[in-house]
What does this fold into?
Amino acid sequence: MEGKLNIIIDARMVNEQLHGIARYTYELIKNMSLEKDIHIIVLVNDLYLANKLFEGLSNIEFIKMKSKFLSLREQIELPLIVNKYKGRAIFHSPSFVSSPFIKCKMIMTIHDLNHLRFPQYYTPFHKYYYRYIVKPSALKCEKILTVSEFSKTEIIDWLRCDSDKVVVTYNGVDEKFKVIEDVVELNRVRKKYNLPDKFVLYIGNLKPHKNVETLVKAMGLTNENIKLIINGKPNESLNNLIKELKLEDRVQFIGYVEDNDLPILYNLATVFVFPSLYEGFGLPPLEAMACGCPVIAANTSSLTEIVNNYGILAQALDINQFKSEISYYFENNVTKFNEYTTNIIGYSSSFKWKNTCDKTLEVIRQIYC
It folds into this structure.
């Protein structure tokens, strides 16, 4: 540790699925570990899992915490551990989890303000956690990182802080998301999930703000030969809507999609649709683009910034517009790989995790000096 820049990172949320904040945290640690002048102290709950996930990485040590991620107990344990490094390390919370009792210099990544924008979907615990833990912790931070200009604007408004306190570091797209021409692999995934030759794809959760019901309603207006593939399992309200619209044969839920199958799924899809009402960043549309899959997204929140002019942006609740845009790809027999595909692949490739790491380290080095 002597002579090195010491960074404490809370990685208790990282698991084998590596989705969302877990992916963000993992990629930061992986890329930071390549820097010879950095020593990373990683906070975990499971040492066996941590050694498995971060196997082969250098400049890392683990500290096991007893308290679980997002718990009241962590408000005692987290400061006890981190404060031992006061003056010798910077604490980075890659999520909104922190403590106002931490005395080290710290930065925090706030990906979005979803819990505040849609309080009806969360417990009272989340409300009080944001008010009494996240907000005072964020105000104590030297800098706050976020993943889009949209989120930056929201955070500044929420905290009433100066603009330069919040720094945008875009998420990256993993290198495994690319055009795949291996026919054997393509056929394997098609058979595994029982996929049709052409289909609309949605990847994401089914929380109300994801607006999947609008997509299902749009499907009810399209040609009866068009099918929609959704990861996971349907919830009760979505199931009832599908039955009401008599779409049982056209909307297919394929359960959990293994991480290595996801890029192939994007490659097989005719078009990817992401109708979400609110995203701090919105990674699935970029992953789809990297695989050469055309994207239709809602013109909301950060999606207009991230999808930009490289996808079709539809009015979020306009069922007829989603129907028209989806139908275009099927009725006009659009060629999958063309000039447009080349453009979206090139655009999505500019979002690299190394860039995210470099920008984060730039902020940390400024604070550390």
